């Protein structure tokens, strides 16, 4: 009874914060001709309701792909169609072909915001609550405290709230991926595979999480033996994946050209390494990944062809993923799987092709799942991830919600986990690594103090830069000074976090023990 009361209060608080943020501005409000992501979602409803399926992804006189053409997988299109069907009953003008372009009104804003609330309530929030219930603690009292603290931190993570309920985005792909993680934690491998396939068919960016899912399940098959139960499980998993994709893509399987056109829309590789930055923040692009940060010093797109850029980003991304994927395949465990979700997604964000600043959420949600294990580092990362989207949030007029939700989140983490007391090598999951370095690095004993000092320095730097970005005009000679500074500082943080997470994964002896129990 106590846990349900605690979770009810947590959910009500989370919904209240979401409602408060949704009262503010949204992406592209009153900014023709393209407006923003809010208009993109509305336009997809217009297209999917008024045009036959075969025209959804094709450029026609009724579907100008240069004006927010559909560039997400079929499940996004189906979701848009369902929303459009409801909108038609309320006010047909909202989705009228051609004439509804750029439509803005308070009733329509209420409708669109409500669709995000419904997606949160039906998919994302239940997955978070059930995940928290799945966490294991020996003490019942401590278990309730862990449930409440983790749920509160995940549901009040400011980055996701500001993007979903401020900027405007649906949490469905992340919610479905979270359902996949939840199912795997209960050994419901087929359901977990199906849930992740649905996530991938909602947004192609879920490829960030695809390798951990693949390697973990493949590793389980290897451990069960590919001549017995392992082979049966592998066949079932393959059948589940094929069936899930077949159901999602069935309307587009009428001919090969339909499938190829959808794929071209999902992966527009000819546009180059930086295409995803074009409609985000002022140039240079604000995603805090390596390529955008390097472009400040080296104009990569001017000296390397798009095809070479693609090969380079693929090679670097693959090499950065390889150690984690090998470790997870050889020693599959749920713990290693969750850390691999973080590491692999962060590698994709830092090194892959056409990254948007919002893609950092694909790293942040897996970090939320391990906040009870490494509260100090997880809190630090989640604060940096929110800060990295500052240029986008400023553009959308979300400065006040950004400041309030970030400070509230930090306060909750401090109260729930007393993070400054969790900075020892053991608390940071670095004990095996520290033992390996014993005798080589003399300052490791003062490591907790160093980490706390770096955290305070980092928070101060982000706070000062946030204030400057919001209140001070940059010099005329350097109009993009603050967005570039945010990008560079965030990228440096993320590179260090990538090293940290890889060290935890590769030196983690707990994974081997979990693997032995599994086999």
Automatic annotation (TrEMBL):
Protein name: Alpha-1,3-glucosyltransferase
Gene: Alg6
Pathway the protein contributes to: Protein modification; protein glycosylation
GO cellular component term, pick one: endoplasmic reticulum membrane
Protein topology in the membrane: Multi-pass membrane protein
Role description: Dolichyl pyrophosphate Man9GlcNAc2 alpha-1,3-glucosyltransferase that operates in the biosynthetic pathway of dolichol-linked oligosaccharides, the glycan precursors employed in protein asparagine (N)-glycosylation. The assembly of dolichol-linked oligosaccharides begins on the cytosolic side of the endoplasmic reticulum membrane and finishes in its lumen. The sequential addition of sugars to dolichol pyrophosphate produces dolichol-linked oligosaccharides containing fourteen sugars, including two GlcNAcs, nine mannoses and three glucoses.
Transmembrane segments: 110-133, 145-163, 175-200, 230-252, 336-353, 360-387, 399-420, 454-472, 484-507
Any one Pfam family match given in the protein's UniProt record, by short name: Alg6_Alg8
